[in-house]
Amino acid sequence: DEFFFQFVINIPYFAVLCWFVRKHSCNYALSYIVVIALQYFTLSYYLLRPMCAIMFIVLAIDSIIENRNKRGIIYTLSAATVHSSAIVFIIFFVVKRLKNIKRYPIYAVCVLAVSLFGRNIVMFILQNILGSSRFVYYLNANMTEGLSRYFIALLFLVIEWFIFLRLKDVDDADKTMLNMSMLGTAFLAFTPIIADFWRIAWYFEVVNCVLYPRALKRLAGQDRAIVIVSSYTVFLLYTFLFLLPGTNALPYYTYFS
CB 3.0–4.6 Å: which of 68, 122, 158, 204 could bond 63 by disulfide? Predict the structure, then answer.
């Protein structure tokens, strides 16, 4: 029974994700809206191995936030045994050292320059890593999905960055997660070259489900209320008008249907 199989496989994934939200978020409802908007719910319908890998990555993120890097590396390697693409998360153990968020525009210019003018170099590197057959498969992937995820991730990063930039003191946990969001958005900038770069970025973008509510909490009362209501409205409209129809998620059936 394929429904029972999916149901059982996804129980640990959703259990870890809900535990992570409960531990680090300050607005559970908004966090779950972000989870849906970033497709961490709809993609669980059929991408079973990647979702299992993300489960370990979420545990790695929690370890990194608590400065338990060795445990984070173990979880990352465990994720890579489930899905090989998860090994890319190991890069973050270098990027996490970035502390000056004011330099983000410089990083953005560098990434965009490589994305726009280094296409042949990037394709050459990927072809040697993936092999010809897998490279051709990913090269022919649907670019619309990758670009849509890029603009959504960029929206999250810009809002979070502007909020934290105005603060005098940003705690280490928020800086760590902001660097993670930045790295995920950087990978998504390469979707015009290979659309399936979003499959790498989503190991980092999952952090937005707790970082975005934490960022909005730093706004003044009235401004926070306006942004939160706007976020609910925009994300729900996007989900029901574009995401669910576009991913063939409707009609929705569960194991109990």
Answer: 68
If we measure between CA atoms, which residue out of 213, 196, 73 comes closest to residue 130? 196
CA angle 217, 222, 228 (to 5 degrees): 55
Over residues 175-188, the pLDDT tens digits come to: 889 888 888 888 88
pLDDT in tens, 26-54: 889 889 888 888 888 877 777 788 889 99
List helix spans (H) across 38-89. 48-65, 69-82
170 token code pair: 């940003």
Q: Look at the block and give the residue holding tokens 């173990």.
A: 74
Query: Whole-angstrom distance between the N-terminal and C-terminal Cα of the chain?
Result: 13
Q: Can you tell me the distance from the alpha carbon of 53 to that of 58, in angstroms, rounded to the nearest whole number?
A: 9
| Residue keyed to tokens 């998860």 | 86
Estimate to the nearest angstrom the gap between the alpha carbon of 1 and the chain centroid: 30
* Closest to 186 (Cα-Cα) out of 92, 120, 80: 92
Nearest to 234 by CA among 26, 41, 39, 37: 37
Q: How far apart are CA 53 and CA 125, in angstroms?
A: 24
190-249 pLDDT, tens digit each? 877 776 777 888 899 999 999 999 988 888 777 788 888 888 888 888 777 777 666 666
**CB atoms < 10 A from the CB of 33, how many?**
20
The whole-angstrom separation of Cα 164 and Cα 195 is 30
